[in-house]
Every structure is written in C-alpha cells, then in structure tokens.
Design brief:
This protein has 530 residues and is mainly alpha-helical. The protein has helices at residues 8-17, 22-26, 43-54, 61-67, 74-94, 100-115, 125-128, 136-150, 190-202, 208-213, 216-224, 233-250, 254-267, 271-287, 297-303, 315-332, 336-349, 353-373, 380-390, 395-409, 415-428, 436-455, 459-475, 482-498, 502-515, 520-529; strands at 118-119, 133-134, 154-159, 162-167, 174-176, 185-187, 229-231. Helix 9 (190-202) crosses helix 11 and helix 13 (254-267) runs antiparallel to helix 14. The longest helix has 21 residues, at 74-94. It is elongated. It starts with 7 loop residues before the first helix and ends with a helix.
C-alpha cells in the first residue's frame, strides 16, 4: 500500500488555513466529528455506525471492515462470516503439533490461495469477498480475522506506507507480509535478530556498548519496530476509511473524502487522520459558495480544532472565511435574510467564543453598512450599538455611527431639542464629543438659544447659553457661520443696553469681536455705544 503525495490544491488549502502542530491535533480532547454530520453509503453502513455510537466497546470488526463497501449488506456480512468460519475449521483440522512457524506458513498459504486473486493499490476490503482483489490493508485485515478466530496472538503493525502482521509477537515474531504471495511470512528468530543488530552496529547506528548492555530482544524491538505502531483491527478499519479518503482526494471528490476521514476519525483519532480531516474541511470551505445556511457548518467544524484553549486552527483564517461568506451572501447576492439566518446558525453552533466575537462584529458592522448604503434604517441602531460595544475604537464604526446620526436622527429644527439629542448621543458614544460637526452644531444651537433669550430680556438665560458657546469655542476652532455669532452678541448687547448696563452692553460686543474681529456690524454697534 503506497501513500501518494497530496494533490497541490490540498497543500495550498492547508497553507491558507495555517495548520498548526500535528502532534497537538492528535491530543484534541473534544469530538471533532458529530454523528449527524455523517452521510452513509448504505443502510448497512449506517446501522454499523449506529451500533458503534451506542456502545463503542462492542465494535464488530468484520462489519466495520465491510461497512465502507458500497453494496455491503447484512447478507454479505453473513456470507463472509460463513466463509471465514469454513476456512478456520479447515485450518484447525490441518494444524500440526510441530512449530508455530509451520502453522503460520499453512495459514498464510491457505488464506492467500482461497481469497486473493489480484493485488490493487486502491482497494476495499469488501472486494476480497467479491472479485478477490486485495491490498496490504484488506489482506492483513483478513489474516487478522482468521488468526483471532484461531486464538493465535498477533499484532498489527502500521507504517506510514504499509500494514502487516506479526504472529506470536511475544515469542516467535513471525511476520505476515500479505502482499507477497510466494514468501509472505518471515520468522524473526534469534539468528535474524542478531544479524540485524550486528548490521546496525557495523553501520554505527548503535554502539557496541549499547549492543552488549541489555536484552537483544528489547534492542531489536526498539530499532526494528521503531517507526511502526501496533494497532487493533478496529483501527485497521479506520485506516481503510483513511485510504478511501486519500483515493477520493486524488479524484478531487472532496465531500466524499471528508466523509471518509470523518468516519476514520471516529474509529481512530490519530495524527494523520486528524490532519487530513482538517485539510479536507479547509478545502471544502475554500470552494463553498455559501448559498445555504448549513454551508456554514464548515466554519463550525474547523473551529472545533481549537479545543481546550489550543488554537490549532488559525482563528484569523476562520474570521476571514466568514468575511468571504459575507461577501457571497450579503454583498454579491444582497440576501440579508440568508445572512441573518446563517449568523443565527453560527451563534448557536460555535463553541469558540473568541471566533464568535470576531464573527459577530463583522455581522453587525456589515449589516449596518449595507443597510445604510441602501437607505434602509430598520433595526440599524441595534447593529450599530453592538458593533460599537465590541470595538469602540474602530474608526469605521465611529464614522458610520456619526454619519447615521447626522443623516437620519438629527431632524429637529428646535435648538434645545437638538442639544438634548446631541447630549444623549455623546453620552452613548463618547467619541462624538470630539467630532467637529457635533461641536459646530452645539455651538450654533447655544448661539441661537442665547439670541432668543436676550431678545426676550432673559439676561441670565442668555448669558448661560452664551457662556456655554464660549466654552466650546475656547476648546477648538469652530466652523460656525459668522452671522450666528454676530446676531447672538448684538442681541446680548441690546438686552444689556435696555437694562441700562452700558458696560456689559459694550463687553458683549467686545466678546463677539474676539471671535470675529473684522466684523463691521459689531464694530459699528460698539462705536455707537461710545
């Protein structure tokens, strides 16, 4: 069984989503796969996984190995079980009392001659019972089933590119190499182990001191099996799903590949399987048009890799993927309803609170921006408020809030109502206190109110408003129209003149001239009082 290089599109996808430590992926404690996210090839496969879901400790290995075969059924399983039982009974009848090695040779030949016709790289265990095609995984699985029924101890060895068995692993160490029809078994006896270790010593891969220091069997196991992991037959069934996923990737069947990797993950949460599960999800997300609410499930499933506080999936990449979803649904299609429903789905499904916060900000900001661009104001205040609460220093959010206020909310012509509205707005959004338009409008309103009060000889109220204006003017340069300033200070001068206070009458004009020193009307009035 050869594992081919990943297609170039997959490597690009992995790079885009910035996969992190593969070792950490294997340690993720949460469930990356949910049963309701699986699709099944047959009713038989679904029933197998339903039983596994109810009791993972009672997995039937034969049914798991057959489950991925498209035409698998309960009848096929019964037939396969019957054929294996017949083989086992024949082998029991022919077993010798001589050596383990001779019995393994008998088993090997009998199984190979009975079941295997043609080696194929891309193979499914079900084909063994159909057309006799096999590869190292499907053949090793069958040998494992036969040995387990014969009560012979064995281990399944997994290498990155191969699977094989070792019968009597604690004693005789007899390899069963299923892809070699003429000499597919090898007894690792003392002579073999000694020769292997001496060869390592000659190659200076181990020292003489290490060779002489301990058990030859332990030293052999350390180096001969160092890159090979013992796995169960259940995990072997998982590797079959893994292989099927690899085959699908080569054919650019990305949805099918993900489903195979997801089922492999349920059976065997290994580093390799987690890696390709994440990579296939990333590829599906990158190709998605997001024309349905449930398409956002790819973002949800990818976010699960960030479990227990470990950011194994680049959160920024996931946020950017939601921005791409926003472009597809809200900007390109203008479908606010679909976008709202998708956000609600994500809000309900996402467990990564940091990611949800990023997504929620984008949702509120973009919804408000698109609505305002289209002249729609329904529900806009809530979205603007939420965006501001999440990122109060965001310049774009501040600009949008300011624009919305001046365009849609500041409608009154009554200066006192305008000031009250501005006061509420500044308390709600403190940044607006620094806005030039707010200062300009506030200043104009105070001038207007001062002019009105002085015209009615309400000197205290007029001074109160005039002082409020001057405090604003002292803080910053106001772009207030000159005639508003002139009118207010002339009204103030006239009111004080009518009250017989000529000093304050002249002072009012001088206060105005400090603001508009070249104004002819203020200078003319001042000359008349003198």
């Amino acid at each position: 069984m050869k594992i081919r290089f990943l297609p170039s599109f997959l490597s690009l996808s992995i790079s885009f989503f910035a996969l992190s430590s593969l070792a950490a992926l294997a340690q993720a404690q949460d469930s990356l796969v949910r049963f309701n996210e699986l699709t099944f090839l047959s009713d038989f496969e679904k029933s197998v996984f339903l039983k596994l879901k109810k009791d993972p400790t009672q997995a039937d290995v034969l049914s798991l190995l057959l489950a991925s075969y498209p035409t698998a059924s309960a009848d096929m399983q019964a037939s396969a079980e019957s054929k294996i039982a017949l083989t086992v009974n024949e082998l029991k009848a022919k077993a010798t009392n001589k050596s383990n090695a001779k019995n393994i040779k008998l088993i090997y030949s009998r199984v190979h001659d009975t079941y295997f016709r043609k080696y194929e790289l891309e193979n499914n265990f079900g084909e063994v019972f159909g057309n006799g095609n096999y590869n190292c995984l499907s053949a090793s699985a069958l040998y494992g089933l036969v040995l387990s029924r014969l009560g012979i101890p064995f281990s399944v060895k997994e290498r990155p590119d191969h699977v094989y068995l070792v019968a009597f692993p604690a004693t005789d160490k007899i390899l069963i190499e299923s892809t070699n029809p003429t000499g597919g078994y090898l007894q690792l006896n003392d002579a073999f182990m000694t020769a292997y270790l001496q060869n390592l010593m000659k190659a200076k891969m181990i020292s003489k001191a290490e060779y002489d220091s301990g058990s030859k069997s332990d030293l052999f196991n350390k180096y001969y099996f160092s890159q090979e992991e013992d796995i169960s037959l259940k995990k072997l069934a998982a590797l079959q799903y893994y292989n099927l996923g690899i085959y699908d990737l080569g054919k650019e069947k990305h949805s099918e590949a993900f489903q195979h990797f997801a089922k492999a993950r349920l059976l065997y949460p290994s580093t390799r399987i987690n890696y390709l599960l994440q990579a296939s999800l990333a590829e599906l997300a990158s190709r998605c048009e997001y024309d349905k609410v449930t398409d956002a499930r790819y973002i949800v499933m990818l976010s699960r890799f960030n479990a227990s506080g470990k950011e194994l999936m680049d959160r920024k990449a996931l946020s950017n993927e939601f921005i791409r979803l926003t472009n597809q649904q809200l900007i390109n299609r203008g479908n606010q309803t679909l976008y709202d429903q998708t956000f609600s789905y994500l809000k309900h499904e996402l467990e990564d609170t940091a990611l949800l916060k990023d997504i929620e900000f984008v949702y509120n900001y973009e919804s408000a921006r698109i609505a305002l661009n289209g002249g729609k104001t329904a529900g806009i205040t809530g979205k603007l408020d939420r965006a501001y609460q999440m990122e109060p220093d965001n310049a774009d959010v501040q600009a949008m809030i300011t624009g919305y206020f001046f365009r849609y909310q500041l409608k009154s012509s009554n200066p006192q109502e305008i000031l009250n509205t501005l006061d509420k707005q500044v308390k709600k959004y403190p940044f607006m206190a620094r806005n030039e338009n707010v200062s300009r409008i506030s200043g104009s309103c105070y001038l207007d109110l001062a002019g009105q009060a002085f015209s009615k000889n309400n000197l205290s109220k007029g001074e109160e408003h005039l002082t409020a204006f001057e405090k604003i003017a002292a803080r910053e340069e106001l772009n207030v129209e000159e005639h508003y300033i002139v009118r207010a200070y002339i009204e103030a001068s006239s009111a004080w003149f009518r009250a017989g206070n000529y000093t304050k009458s002249k002072a009012a004009l001088n206060r105005g001239l400090k603001l508009v020193p070249d104004n002819f009307m203020l200078r003319e009035r001042l000359s008349q009082i003198r």
